[in-house]
Design brief:
With about 500 residues, this protein is α+β, with helices and mostly antiparallel strands. Among the domains are: about 65-250, Immunoglobulin-like (Sandwich); about 350-505, Neutral Protease, domain 2 (Orthogonal Bundle), CATH 1.10.390. It is about 35% helix and about 25% strand. Strand 13 (about 175-180) and strand 14 form a beta hairpin. Helix 5 (about 355-375) packs antiparallel against helix 6 (about 375-390). The longest helix has 29 residues, at about 1-30. The termini are far apart.
Length: about 500
């Protein structure tokens, strides 16, 4: 018996060696040019991309009818804003509320006291989150938070420079929920918008030095001055957040659109005011025609001092740095920021979970501005230039234009947290969806294409939209075009370029 067992073992051993040898030969013979590792990665990603995975989870639990009542003072001598925010929640979703504290990269917001329905409560706070316990969930509650926010002497989103005070994400903001839990605050990068919040009604009072000009997310209610101090008051419904930019030194003008919207523009030097007025008037007229009327009663386009953030948007505010006029693409980016009044303010998104959704629409809108201002030939020329960038996998970032990107295996529909570089971010979140909308326009024709955008806009104003709603708007106009949108959003970048190159020839 021992001899028979050893003979069987020998035969089994020889068979295993033969199989290994055959496998090695097959691996060498069949190896793809790109190598097995790259092939496996591409295959897995391609398999995944056949099923659309929305950047905004379908299980986000939107919190409705929130209200913020802010009463604060800007202390310019000590570079701090102090105050209280009372947040009314109609139905508490949990036995604790989580608030995001966004200004943590300089000095965090200091939480001094918290009350729930008028009763002091213990709380936990670090540089990024405030957790407030509640006796029970499912009930209406008003949480009042006393806070102070240091303002850095810098040209940052929250900061002060050259006498201009930028107050953005400057107070505790209620977090966003999914899967019956609170999502953590997104971690910031040196680019993009790491922000999440639900819509809310706002009432804001701010005590500040007399003589300040203010540009705000809300509509002004009153301004009263006494003993060298002014108290200004604003209100708005259905805002994502409340931003304020104030100081002195602007030349400004205002007009009312045919739809009754007050549009204000302001520049740091009088000589650029006519050019900004021309850009803003053309952009507002074009976007109103192509998408629909602005959702809010006021909107401002404001030039900031040199050395501030290049260009950025807040509810009903479009801001850009003074240096933008020296950039070859400055006009495009001003038009882009104006477009965010439609695609971010009026139709909102959970920005950090899918930046492409509003950035792509805003950037394509800027091309519609080019078309309206300079003609269809200029539009086509811009598309050709941008396609060359896309085909060559070169950056679209205004700060690193034409720099190489590393995105061959990546899709467009992914969250902010996935990105480590600004070059890749601008390529996938701005350039790729911009070209997607041009491709869809060619597929649908102008009549159907703009009907698709108008229906999407009108059905999602005053709401937080998702990819699902974008696809549904397209499906209602031309169902077979949805697969093309999915290809643009889900395909690995290298595969997409090969799939659409003939359409841009």
């Amino acid at each position: 018996m021992p001899f028979i067992r050893s003979k069987k073992s020998l035969l089994l051993y020889q068979s295993i060696l033969s199989l290994v040898a055959i496998s090695v030969c097959l691996v060498l013979i069949l190896q793809p040019k790109e190598g097995w590792t790259a092939w496996v990665s591409r295959t897995l990603r391609s398999t995944h991309s056949t099923v659309a995975t929305p950047a905004v989870p379908t299980n986000i639990q939107v919190q409705h009818n929130l209200k913020y009542d802010l009463d604060a003072e800007l202390d310019t001598a000590n570079s701090v804003v102090r105050g209280t925010v009372a947040v009314s929640v109609p139905e508490a979703p949990d036995t604790q509320l989580l608030f995001y504290l966004y200004p943590s990269t300089y000095k965090p917001i200091q939480i001094e006291q918290v009350e729930a329905d008028g009763q002091k409560v213990s709380f936990q706070a670090d540089s990024q989150h405030l957790t407030v316990p509640l006796p029970q969930k499912g009930e209406a509650v008003e949480v009042t938070i006393r806070f102070s926010t240091p303002i850095p002497a810098a040209g940052t989103r929250l900061g002060q420079k050259d006498g201009v005070w930028s107050l953005t994400y400057w107070y505790p903001i209620l977090g966003v929920r999914a899967n019956n839990t609170w999502l953590p605050r997104p971690q910031p990068r040196p680019f993009g918008d790491p922000f999440l919040m639900d819509l809310a009604a706002y009432h804001v009072k701010l005590k500040h030095p007399t003589g300040f000009q203010w540009f705000a997310s809300g509509y002004p209610l009153s301004s009263q001055t006494e003993a060298g101090v002014t108290i200004s008051e604003w209100r708005s419904e259905s805002l994502r957040s409340f931003a304020l930019v104030g100081g002195t030194g602007w030349t400004e003008t205002m007009w009312k659109t045919a739809d009754g919207v007050d549009v204000k523009i302001a520049t740091r030097t009088p000589k650029t005011l006519p050019e900004l007025q021309r850009i803003t008037q053309t952009a507002v007229k074009t976007y109103t025609k192509r998408f629909g009327s602005l959702a809010y009663p006021s909107f401002a386009v404001v030039e900031m001092p040199a050395g501030t953030v290049f260009a950025h948007e807040y509810p009903n505010l479009a801001l850009f740095s003074q240096e933008i006029w020296s950039w070859g693409t400055g006009e495009h980016w001003i038009a882009h920021e104006i477009a965010h009044a439609w695609w971010f303010s009026s139709v909102g998104t959970y920005k950090a979970l899918g930046p492409w959704l509003d950035e792509g629409l805003a950037d394509y809108a800027a091309l519609l501005y080019i078309e309206a201002q300079y003609g269809h030939a200029a539009y086509k020329e811009t598309i050709a230039q941008n396609w060359n960038l896309f085909r060559g996998e070169k950056s679209y970032s205004p700060h690193n234009y034409q720099a190489p990107v590393q995105v061959k295996e990546q899709a467009a529909d992914q969250p902010y947290a996935n990105f480590a570089s600004e070059t890749d971010y601008y390529y996938l979140m701005y350039l790729r969806p911009q070209l997607m909308y041009h491709d869809l326009r060619m597929e649908l024709g102008d009549e159907q294409f703009f009907r698709f955008l108008q229906q999407f806009y009108l059905k999602n104003r005053y709401a937080t939209t998702t990819r699902d709603r974008l696809e549904e708007a397209l499906r209602q106009v031309k169902p077979e075009a949805v697969s093309r949108m999915k290809m643009w959003l889900d395909s690995p970048n290298g595969d997409l370029i090969q799939s659409v190159k003939d359409r841009f020839a």
